Amino acid sequence: MNLWPPFLGAGIRVRHIAVDFREVRVELRPGLLNRNYFGTHFGGSLYAMADPFFALMVLHNLPSNYLVWDKSAAIDYVAPGRGRVRARFVLTQQDLDTIVRMTADGDKHLHLFRVDIEDAEGLVVARVERIVYVRKKKAGNGGDR
Fold first, then answer.
1. How do residues 84-136 score in pLDDT, each as one tens digit?
2. I need a surface site. Which of 21, 42, 50, 123 has the fewest CB within 10 A?
3. SS3 letters for the chain?
């Protein structure tokens, strides 16, 4: 993932992906290509840090008969990000249990995830909300992801 062009160009680095895809750690270091006019992290780079992870984590923790995709996202910029910033994404068993329960009858479920982007001192730079769409595939849809 570190070679994926949107991450590479923005200076985003995936530092850890758990074998079970239940935890991901990502960081962003400041650089010439991801600074805004004020010398702080470009908001789009902060936003991109949180882009694919919750959907990927859900996808890798459900059977192949589920459809999973990002539905929407929002970010609240809390403080200027000046140095290295980090985000830790966690998929809990409670999240998975809720998703399975809400989709058991073939209904779609829009699951809300939240993650904070923090600086080296642990101060929140941005708060991100991601809504992931999940439902079981309809009969005849095949088993492809």
1. 999 999 999 999 999 999 999 999 999 999 999 999 999 999 999 999 999 99
2. 123
3. CCCCHHHHHHCEEEEEECCCCCEEEEEECCCHHHECCCCCECHHHHHHHCCCHHHHHHHCCCCCCEEEEEEEEEEEECCCCCCCEEEEEECCHHHHHHHHHHHCCCCCEEEEEEEEEEECCCCEEEEEEEEEEEEECCCCCCCCC
List Cα–Cα distances, 107 to 7, 59, 64, 97, 132, in angstroms. Answer: 34, 17, 16, 15, 14
Q: Are 65 and 137 in contact (CB under 8 A)?
A: yes
State the Cα–Cα distance between residues 134 and 58, nearest whole angstrom.
Answer: 9
CB crowding 33-46: b at 16 or more within 10 Å, else e: ebbeeeebbbeebb
Query: Nearest-CA neighbor of 23 among 51, 70, 61?
Result: 61
